[in-house]
């Protein structure tokens, strides 16, 4: 079992629960960030929300619910859960024992992140509180987690983590001619080609007439790599 946890909490810590008041600033991450850090091999993906964030954080509950449905489409074979954790000890334990932990800006993540060994991504804004925490933390503890800058910036190289996950295969007859072999091929494909009898309705074998269309990240399409393009990329390597 491989468990990933996304923990949502207030980015500040100015609460007086005895007076039922809390200045909770909630700053979510864009969905593509979660998709990059929560591995496809996850069998369980848990969204845990602090009670202050759920009660006082503007957009916190809505973001958690949206993530719940987003993860269902992105990890169809995983068990997706969403819980508001009332006990701090239970909340910390969920974060510490997870195989992978991802946190938007929130002071509630710092202690569990430091206590963990690896696979931890804690996004933090530059602030006096966070700067003090990090300055006073022993360097060997900081090597256990990654602290990317916030807000995250999407770059072209991130597409390799996102494309090909949510979409559909559709026929593209304009592309199909370029997907046919010009010379005889040995093995299963060669036998399939030689046995295929083209018709007016089906001029090419069905597996060679489809292409992948992204439905989630339109900015990360799956492009066709030609022989010339492949040679160019190999030459660069």
For the biggest β-sheet, the strand order reads 5-4-1-6-7
Supply the helix-strand structural class: alpha/beta
| Euclidean distance between termini CA atoms | 37 Å
**Which residue ranges are poorly predicted, with pLDDT under 50 across at least 5 consecutive positions?**
none
What are the secondary-structure elements, in order, as H or E?
EEEHEHHEHEHEHHEHEH
Provide the helix percentage.
Answer: 25-40%
Number of domains: 2
The value of Rg in angstroms is 24 Å
The CATH class of the largest domain, by name, is: Alpha Beta
What would you call the shape? elongated
Biggest beta sheet summary: 5 strands, parallel
* CATH topology call of the largest domain: Rossmann fold
Strand content: 15-25%
Number of strands: 9
- Quaternary state reads single chain
> How confident overall, as mean pLDDT?
83
Number of helices: 9
Q: Could you say what the CATH architecture of the largest domain is? A: 3-Layer(aba) Sandwich
Overview of the molecule:
The chain folds into 2 domains: 3-153, Rossmann fold (3-Layer(aba) Sandwich), CATH 3.40.50; 158-236, no CATH class. The protein contains 9 helices and 9 strands. It has helices at 31-37, 51-56, 60-74, 88-97, 110-115, 128-136, 139-142, 187-195, 227-236, and strands at residues 3-8, 14-16, 21-23, 44-49, 79-84, 100-103, 120-122, 167-171, 210-214. Strand 6, helix 5 (110-115) and strand 7 (120-122) form a beta-alpha-beta unit. The mean pLDDT is 83. The chain has a 5-stranded parallel β-sheet with strand order 5-4-1-6-7, with helices on both faces. A two-stranded antiparallel sheet has the order 2-3. It has a two-stranded antiparallel ribbon with strand order 8-9. By secondary structure, it is of the alpha/beta class.
